[in-house]
Design goal:
Helix content: 55-70%
Largest sheet: 2 strands, antiparallel
Low-confidence stretches: none
Mean pLDDT: 82
Number of domains: 1
Shape: elongated
Distance between the termini: 58 Å
Strand order of the largest sheet: 1-2
Number of strands: 2
Order of helices and strands: HEEHH
Length: about 140
């Protein structure tokens, strides 16, 4: 495999907003998890059926699993984003197009980081709130 061009990353204002937004989302996930943990009884719903009703219960420490998983994925994406020259591209990377291709790719990874935190955590918290209302 031919060595790809390595260039210095330049963050745009939008990239900075995505970065800060991702940190805010991850912080919110942890804050909600800790608040739910402190308010929860010793057992908490851990699994939900298709209609959102709890059908499995476990220790309240399981409330922290989703933020831990989200944090691991967030940190993995952050590390991967430091090396855009190792990604697979549909076009050959040349000195002329490297900056544009790397910028697009790293922006996509930043967006995916935020979407990951939001998707996993919101679905989990919505189900848990429904379960708490029904208890």
């Amino acid at each position: 495999m031919k060595a790809r061009h390595k260039i210095k990353k330049i963050l745009t204002q939008f990239d900075r907003i995505l970065k800060i937004g991702g940190i805010i989302l991850l912080t919110t996930v942890w804050a909600l998890a800790i608040l739910n943990y402190l308010k929860a009884t010793d057992t908490a719903p851990i699994h939900f059926n298709l209609s959102g009703q709890p059908d499995g219960y476990g220790s309240k420490t399981t409330l922290l699993f989703i933020p831990i998983i989200s944090t691991i994925i967030y940190l993995a994406f952050t590390q991967i984003n430091k090396f855009p020259y190792i990604y697979n591209y549909t076009t050959n990377i040349t000195e002329e197009n490297a900056k544009r291709q790397y910028t697009i790719a790293t922006k996509m990874v930043r967006i995916l980081k935020g979407c990951n935190c939001t998707n996993i955590s919101c679905r989990d918290f919505i189900n848990r709130l429904r379960a708490l209302k029904n208890l």
